[in-house]
Amino acid sequence: MSGRFTAGRGWTPFIALLAVGYVAVPLLLGANQYIMSMLVAALVIGCVALSWALLGNLGGMVSFGHSAFFGVGAYVSAIVTLKAGMPVPAGMALGGAGAVIASLAMLPVLRLRGPYFALAILAYAHIFRIVATEWTSATGGSGGIGNIPVLPAVPRSLFGFDMGGKTGAYLVILTIVLLFALAFRAIRASHYGLALRAMHGSEDATRVVGVNSTLLKGVMLMVSAFMAGVAGAFNAHYLNFLEPDYAFSGVWVTLPIVAAIFGGYRTIAGPVLGALVVYLLDQLVFKALIPTGHQLVLGGLLVAMIIFSPTGLLPLLQKSASKPGRNDHA
Prior knowledge:
Elements: H1 2-29, H2 33-57, H3 66-82, H4 88-104, H5 115-134, H6 136-139, E1 145-146, E2 157-158, E3 161-162, H7 165-189, H8 191-201, H9 203-208, H10 213-239, E4 241-242, H11 244-247, H12 251-263, H13 270-289, H14 294-308, H15 313-329
Antiparallel strand pairs: 1-4, 2-3
Helix pairs in contact: 2-7, 2-10, 2-12, 2-13, 3-4, 3-5, 3-10, 4-10, 7-10, 12-13, 13-14
């Protein structure tokens, strides 16, 4: 009885967050185009941070090259929708598939560990950027691709507020992030997730009992690549323009990593929470106070979080929220 009550109570924060995300935010902030654009950008970063955390948390691999998946997904979706006339949702799915294909080229580096793997993935990101720059017939080269088809049209009015423009894009990326978070949760709760967590303790020991660690790590790399590729595809259709230096920018590596670590990369919601807090604080507060060099404040905030709560912001909030309950019980 108490177990069912606890499980039911566990859904309450999730339902409340859904209500805030899908109803309260559009109703309260939908008219403010600047704030909505900041939320869209933060959720794009959160999506990449979630894919990075999945690879690090379950796959046990630290990547410095997620910009490769982001950029490939963006270019594949832009090309198939612009030049082949494919619908945008299908193009975004193919963008994720393109990132998965790109990850297949990286499978040989799964033999590497630690910083060697991270640097090898970073090298692949640079290779893909060079390919996008030189393959002018498909990508437009350094001049980029313009007039990329926009996100699919949605009803202009729903629940009393305008669903076009920034609000519609916000709801699309929010849904993508939610679906990926649920997929992350399902993988972690499966027997594959159990095997992956066991690999963190001793990869050699798991091999002895029959776990194919290389295969599992490869699958996690492909799942992570798909997530980042879809995020890149969404971003391309949201901005309607794409060029190599932006698509494969180091921003799609540094900001997601900072967001994931700040929010708590060993949790599912932590990377998304970290992206929202880090990006919105930086753009709306620190940038206004210090127009030049505002990233220094963000760096200091990250250092403080690592020192005082190495597990991240979300575990810190959960720990603080549970203290009164423990004291009352005692």
